[in-house]
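To: structure subgroup
Subject: Chain for Friday's discussion

All,

I'm putting the inputs and outputs inline so they're searchable in the archive.
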Amino acid sequence: LRSALVAPSQRELSRPPREMSGLLGRVAGLAARVAPAEAAGSQACASWAKRANPVYPSPWNKWFPYEPVPSTPQIGPYKVQCSAKETYHFCTCGESTTQPWCEAPGAKCAKVPEFAPRAYQPQHDGMKLMCGCKKAPDSFCNGSCALLYADLNPIMVGAAGFGGCFAFGLVYTWMMHRERTGASSTAPRARRGRARACPLRLRAAP
């Protein structure tokens, strides 16, 4: 869209008035489309600065700036004890002080009206792992916090991955070398046993 707002070339200036008016109309329409998107992006950044918890937009949010971005109170799951007899309201905005549940359940979130609490009623009593980064599509943690941590700390995650692959390569090479040396050491013993057994068979023959 920005490329269409560049000053017209000499060839475009030499067009008839009708074509020029149509070109100017298209440029004005594109400018009208770009302005709301930039305004929405600036308003979103301003609202993010007012939040208590950090906001980490994903690549999806960068391509679609109109969608609201939740805050991330914790990079990791919340371990909570749930009862099957109660109904909980999962916080989707990330600004509640009673994480992972909404502090004021209703039709919309009181702190971030773009979000609404999600009702959750467990089927069984027990410990549940609820999403803390607010990036999972459901209320439960699905490992999205690990991807978010990798996006925020690429050097550390890359070094850990390289170290793990290197250690696995060393252990696997040692195991294969040990297996090969063990097979080569048992082969001469098998040949000696067969050589000793052959004369006995020949003597036993009539």
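Points worth raising on Friday:
The CA atoms of residues 172 and 178 lie 10 Å apart.
The chain has a mean pLDDT of 78.

D.
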